Amino acid sequence: VWRGVTYHRPDLQGIARHAPRRVRDTTDGVRCGLWALGRPLVDHLVLSPDAEVVHVLDVTAADDAVVPGPARVWDGVVAAVVAGSLPPLGPSIREIAARLPLEWASLDRDLARVDDGRVRVDARLRDALDDLVAATRDANVRAGLALAVIAEIAACIGDGLRGRAQALLASRPEAEQRAALATLEQPEPERSEEARAITAGVQALLEMIAGT
C-alpha cells in the first residue's frame, strides 16, 4: 500500500487475482504499477526485495488531453458489467450508465474509474492497444485484444457501477424492488443482447484505433 493505493501480486499463495495495479519482480528489484494486456503500462515504484522504497518514478503523462470515447465502446463495457452481475441489478446498471460519458484521459495510479459524473480510462491502455493491434494483421487477434480492453475496463469499474445500482434499486418503491428480486427465481436470462453490444463495442474500439 502506497499513498492509499494497494498493489497486488496476481498469484499470491496460489490464488489468482485480477490485478491492474500489480506487484512484479524485475531484474532491478520489485516494481509496482499498472498492468494490462499482458504487459506493464507504467511503473510507479521500485522497491527492494524487503519492500523498502528505492525509487518513486515520475509517471506524469506527457499529454493531459481528455478524449471522448465512442458510445458503442461504453455500451459494450456496460453490457460486460451487466453480464457479470445478478439479474436484479441489470436495469439499474443500465440506467446509471446512461448518465455517464466515457473518456480517455491521464489518470493518477488508476486504470479506469467512475468519478465526477463520468467514466475515465487511462489513455495508456488505449495506446497499448494501438501498439499491439499495429503489430498483427490477424483479425481474430485484434478482436481478442479489443475484447480484452473492454473486459479490463468492465472489471475495474464494475463494482462501482453495481454499488450505484444497488443504491438506486434500494431507493425505489417496495413493489419495484420485489419485482426486481423476483428475477432471481427465474431461469438465467439469455445474454444475446449483451453479446451484441460487446461485439459492437469491440468493432468500435478497433475503428477508433484505426482512426487515430
How would you portray this structure in words?
There is one protein chain. This protein is α+β, with helices and mostly antiparallel strands. 44% of the residues lie in helices and 20% in strands. The protein contains 6 helices and 8 strands; from the N terminus they run βββββααβββαααα. The strands form 2 sheets. The chain has a 4-stranded antiparallel sheet with strand order 1-2-3-4. It has a 4-stranded mixed sheet with strand order 5-6-8-7. A hairpin with a 2-residue loop joins strand 2 and strand 3. Helix 1 packs antiparallel against helix 2 and helix 4 packs across helix 6. The longest helix has 32 residues. The chain is globular. The two termini are 36 Å apart.
Assembly state? single chain
Fraction of residues in H or I helices: 40-55%
Distance between the termini: 36 Å
Unreliable parts: none
List the helices and strands in order: EEEEEHHEEEHHHH
Query: Which class do the helix and strand fractions yield?
Result: alpha+beta
Number of strands: 8
Average pLDDT score = 88
Strand content: 15-25%
Features:
212 residues; four-stranded antiparallel beta sheet
Strand-helix topology:
Blueprint: E1 21-26, E2 29-36, E3 39-47, E4 53-56, E5 67-68, H1 71-83, H2 90-97, E6 102-105, E7 112-115, E8 118-122, H3 123-134, H4 139-170, H5 174-182, H6 192-211
Brief rundown of the structure:
This protein is 44% helix and 20% strand. The protein is of the alpha+beta class. It starts with 20 loop residues before the first strand and ends with a helix.
